[in-house]
Amino acid sequence: MSQPETVLIGLSLGADLCWPAAYEELLRRLDLDIEVKGRRVRFQTERVILEPYDLEQDCRYDLVLDRLTHWFSLSREWIKKITLMDGTYVLNNPWSVQSMEKHTSYCAMLKLGLPIPKTWMLPSKEQVDVADVDVTLRRYGRLFRLPDVGEAVGYPAFLKPYDGGGWVGVRRVTDDASLSAAYDDSGSRVNHLQAAVPDWDVFVRGVGIGPQVNVIRYDPDKPLHGRYLVDFHFLDAEGWKTAQKTTRVINAFFGWDFNSCEMLRSDGVLHPIDFANPCPDSQVTSLHFHFPWLVKALLRWSLFCAATKRPFKPNLDWAPFFAIAELELPYAEKLDRYDALAQAHFSTPEFEAFCDEHLGELDALAVDYFSSTLFKDTVREKVASLFPAHEVESFTDHFFGLVGFWCHTEQDRLGAGP
């Protein structure tokens, strides 16, 4: 038999502790040595080091899982270099992450006909002190009445940064007075004013990795460690499919391999409200029960992309989506057609065949690992980085217990109960 080719996966990390440890350990336990397109392939991971680099230096990695592009400039520019010059596959597309902020995502999905709430863009209350800003505003800035915008959008509404994340700067307003107070406090941020979804009864987040989508009930009013709920049957079959399709379509449209989409259900309709999150929460201290799904999904998609040498596409092709948007069709049928484009973008049949052929042992290995004291030690390390010392053991038991509950449900699903 021929010597195996080692596929090297780089992990570009910041404060991440738990998911890379779980990813590395599950990959070690899989111990893959597989035949892919006439090549014998093995896998190895390495954590990416931040250092000066020659722009003409070859990239050692076949694929990079990146968690820094959205905020760390040195890493972002290196990611751009390796995709542009070396063709390295990266999760996520750095140009799309940098340029497709929430404003662009709203505009694009409105054009596709998704049920986005009414949204206005507002000038910032205060101006950044840069050359020519004063003369520009004196010549071309138009005075406006903030209550007129509030009336056009309707109350209640949310004032929120057009490019923000993590709920920073988001304020709920209920009348002209609260809108004025929130706007006065917003400083130099450029904001959207977006109508609240009326009478919503379910808040969900669709977490998408490649073509895989997990739909999780969500409560933004809870502390961060309690927002992702352990709940079942909160959507019917059609609602679940719609949430999955919506998330997958958004991710394919923007070239994001890894992203999350927030949706509110009102009168049976799922309204996307926030879906430019291409570095979504991946920590056991927030995902807990849902954490093993995320690690397995990252493994499946990254191994598929690396082993099959999936080509990185730096450019986005929106024309096929816009062509569907122009058709006189019911929204559900348009969504089906958009999703067909998304499934093609993510090569879903080939991905599923790869997983069936090569990753059949992953589910059982995951149950064994996520039940282990080794994983509990990883949970404890993550908890210790976030919580006061006197709470470390109780929260370690809490999160490990929720993952243990997932292990029980997964054993039932696999027909391998205790």
Description:
This protein is of the alpha+beta class. It is 44% helix and 17% strand. It contains 16 helices and 13 strands. It has helices spanning 18-30, 73-86, 94-99, 102-111, 133-140, 146-153, 176-184, 237-254, 284-287, 291-307, 319-325, 331-345, 348-358, 362-370, 373-386, 392-414, and strands at residues 5-12, 34-36, 39-47, 63-66, 89-91, 119-122, 157-161, 171-173, 191-195, 202-209, 212-217, 258-266, 269-274. A hairpin with a 2-residue loop joins strand 2 and strand 3. Helix 1 (18-30) packs across helix 10 (291-307), helix 14 (362-370) runs antiparallel to helix 16 and helix 15 (373-386) crosses helix 16. The two termini are 40 Å apart.
Order of helices and strands: EHEEEHEHHEHHEEHEEEHEEHHHHHHHH
Q: Could you report the average pLDDT, rounded to the nearest whole number?
A: 95
Largest sheet report: 5 strands, mixed
Strand order of the largest sheet: 2-3-1-4-5
Helix content: 40-55%
How many E-type strands?
13
Give the termini distance in whole angstroms. 40 Å
The DSSP helix count reads 16
Q: From the alpha-carbon coordinates, what is the Rg to the nearest angstrom?
A: 23 Å
**Assembly annotation:** single chain
**Gross geometry:** globular
* Poorly predicted runs of 5 or more residues: none
Strand percent estimate: 15-25%
Structural class designation: alpha+beta
Topology at a glance:
Blueprint lengths: L4 E8 L5 H13 L3 E3 L2 E9 L15 E4 L6 H14 L2 E3 L2 H6 L2 H10 L7 E4 L10 H8 L5 H8 L3 E5 L9 E3 L2 H9 L6 E5 L6 E8 L2 E6 L19 H18 L3 E9 L2 E6 L9 H4 L3 H17 L11 H7 L5 H15 L2 H11 L3 H9 L2 H14 L5 H23 L4
Parallel strand pairs: 1-3, 1-4, 4-5
Antiparallel strand pairs: 2-3, 6-9, 7-8, 7-9, 10-11, 10-12, 12-13
Helix pairs in contact: 1-10, 1-14, 8-12, 11-12, 14-16, 15-16
